[in-house]
Each structure stands twice: as structure tokens, then as C-alpha cells.
């Protein structure tokens, strides 16, 4: 077969790809530049992508994750810490553990909200708490 540019090869449908078909990586600047000018099977390529890119569902991240743009979560999610620099729209927040500050000057971070059976507490400035009673209605 004479030499041809990659752009001259016919395209194929995704359903026609076999797991052992080969890809040629010519120019890669992203996560792993050592892949430049290598051959890789579709199975190997999928495994590579799974290392660096999350699937559509079921992904687990550890460490810090920075997202630029919108972040949408549907369903139940659990976060140790969720920090936003803009607006966060939440339908519901569940604070699972009752916590009572030891005093109005107990250690706290501005904006922190905790609760116990009798009060909701809000830290209004570093180590300064206010509370409001929870009443039946």
C-alpha cells in the first residue's frame, strides 16, 4: 500500500471497531506526551482513558478537584467539603450529625451551620456563633 495521509483513510462507524484494531497516536500534548508516535489497540486506549477521564457515572475522585464552569449533580451525593466561589443552588441539604458549639465563642468558621435538638447555630464571623430555637409548628 502506498503512503497515505491519515486524512485520506475512510472513516468507520463505531460499531465496526474491533477491540484489537489499532490506533496510531501521532501528536499528543495532553496528559501523557510519552504516547506520541505509538500504536495502541482500542482496548488499551479505553484503559488509558479510564485512568485520566471519569466515566459518565460511578466515578470516585480523591484529593482536590477544581471545576471551571458549571458542575451539575443529580441524585444523592456526599462531600466532606464543598467550596464554591459563586452561587450554589441546592434543593436540599442534610446535616447528618448533631453538633453543639461549646459556647458562643467556640471555634468556628464564618458561614458554618450546625444543629442540635433545640437550636440551629450559625457562625457569623470566626469563632462567633448565633443560635435560634427550633420550635414545633
Characteristics of this structure?
1 helix, three-stranded antiparallel β-sheet, mainly beta, 8% helix, elongated, two-stranded antiparallel sheet
The beta-strand count equals: 5
Termini separation (Å)? 82 Å
The assigned structural class equals: mainly beta
Query: What's the Cα radius of gyration?
Result: 26 Å
Low-confidence regions: none
Strand adjacency order, main sheet: 3-4-5
Mean pLDDT: 80
Explain what the structure shows.
- The protein has one helix at residues 42-52, and strands at 22-25, 38-41, 113-115, 119-125, 128-133.
- The protein is mainly beta and 137 residues long.
- The strands form two sheets. The chain has a three-stranded antiparallel beta sheet with strand order 3-4-5, with no helix packed on it.
- The protein is elongated and about 80 Å long.
Summarize the structure.
With 137 residues, the protein is mostly beta strands. The chain is 8% helix and 18% strand.
SSE blueprint:
Layout: E1 22-25, E2 38-41, H1 42-52, E3 113-115, E4 119-125, E5 128-133
Antiparallel strand pairs: 1-2, 3-4, 4-5
Amino acid at each position: 500500500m502506498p503512503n497515505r495521509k491519515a486524512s485520506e483513510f475512510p472513516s468507520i462507524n463505531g460499531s465496526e471497531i474491533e477491540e484489537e484494531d489499532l490506533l496510531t497516536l501521532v501528536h499528543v500534548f495532553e496528559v501523557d506526551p510519552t504516547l506520541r508516535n505509538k500504536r495502541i489497540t482500542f482496548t488499551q486506549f479505553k484503559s488509558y482513558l479510564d485512568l485520566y477521564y471519569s466515566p459518565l457515572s460511578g466515578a470516585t475522585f480523591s484529593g482536590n478537584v477544581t471545576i471551571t464552569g458549571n458542575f451539575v449533580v443529580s441524585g444523592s451525593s456526599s462531600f466532606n467539603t464543598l467550596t464554591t466561589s459563586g452561587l450554589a443552588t441546592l434543593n436540599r441539604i442534610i446535616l447528618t450529625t448533631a453538633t453543639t458549639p461549646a459556647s458562643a465563642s467556640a471555634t468556628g468558621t464564618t458561614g458554618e451551620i450546625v444543629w442540635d435538638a433545640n437550636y440551629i447555630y450559625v457562625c457569623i464571623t470566626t469563632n462567633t456563633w448565633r443560635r435560634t430555637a427550633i420550635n414545633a409548628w
